[in-house]
Design goal:
single chain, alpha/beta, Rossmann fold, seven-stranded mixed beta sheet, two-stranded antiparallel sheet, 8 helices, about 25% helix, disordered C terminus
Length: about 250
């Protein structure tokens, strides 16, 4: 299976798929930090979307999409950055790759682009950390929890509305230039679950039946798309509406 891990410099997900024999590549504008530059495409991921991938797992930047940034929501100029971020998210979601997962925290991408399918936590996959994460899934089943553990508590809030509430690792990090980069990394348990559970979807055996080869199955998906689960399939944004809104963006 050819797998594109979009907006990933850590190569955590890429390496998990490689360990199972898949032809996986990470792609980011940054150099990779995962130790395998031969598996990394440095550049604009939008230029790689037409390269006959079977699966894409994308981690678009959440700075201007996440509700965690509502404190700065109405700062001057931020609305244009938010529209740019939504446009990038939409292009990833609307590509012709047959199986897609987009990962992001709770934010305005749902339901603006599509409704998310699943919310997961690292502590549901064996990592003792808390980081509420939404998954947008196209032709992929929801991830099954592999090992539920108790999340590590780093301290307690001493004042404000959260006084007495536990502080988890993602919130405990001190502000620094690398804070966003560190917070964006995928935890190993989730990466391994993605590779183990999605690496077999669309192969010789699939939920829809057996296929003689993967290309045939991909063509079948394009003609008869199947979103998992049926009760909560994502609703795609009308592309014309999105791009009409984005015409307001500054040209420079």
């Amino acid at each position: 299976m050819r797998v594109l891990i979009a907006c990933e410099e850590s190569q955590e997900v890429c390496k998990a798929f490689r360990q199972l024999g898949h032809e996986a590549y990470s792609c980011d504008i940054l150099e990779c930090s995962g130790g395998h530059p031969e598996w990394h495409i440095q550049g604009d991921v939008l230029e790689q979307l037409d390269k006959e991938w079977d699966l894409m797992i994308a981690h678009p930047p959440c700075t201007y999409l996440s509700y965690a940034a509502t404190k700065w929501w109405n700062d001057k100029g931020r609305i244009w950055k938010r529209l740019e971020a939504l446009n990038f998210f939409a292009k990833l979601w609307d590509t012709d790759i047959p199986r897609i997962c987009i990962e992001n925290p709770m934010g305005c991408a749902s339901p603006t682009i599509a409704k998310y399918n699943q919310i997961i936590q690292p502590y549901q996959f064996g990592d003792e950390e808390s980081k509420r994460t939404c998954l947008w899934l196209k032709n992929l089943p929801e991830l099954k929890h592999t090992k539920i553990v108790k999340p590590k508590i780093y301290g307690y809030y001493k004042k404000g509305k959260k006084k007495g509430m536990p502080i988890y690792g993602n919130s405990y990090l001190k502000f620094s230039e690398d804070r966003g980069k560190i917070r964006s990394k995928t935890f190993p348990g989730i990466a391994q679950a993605m590779a183990n559970q999605w690496g077999t979807v669309g192969g010789f055996t699939s939920p829809e039946g057996d296929f003689s080869n993967e290309k045939e199955h991909n063509r079948n998906l394009k003609e008869n798309p199947t979103d998992f689960p049926k009760s909560d399939s994502p609703t795609s944004l009308n592309s014309d509406i999105m791009f009409n809104k984005l015409k307001m963006l500054p040209s420079d």
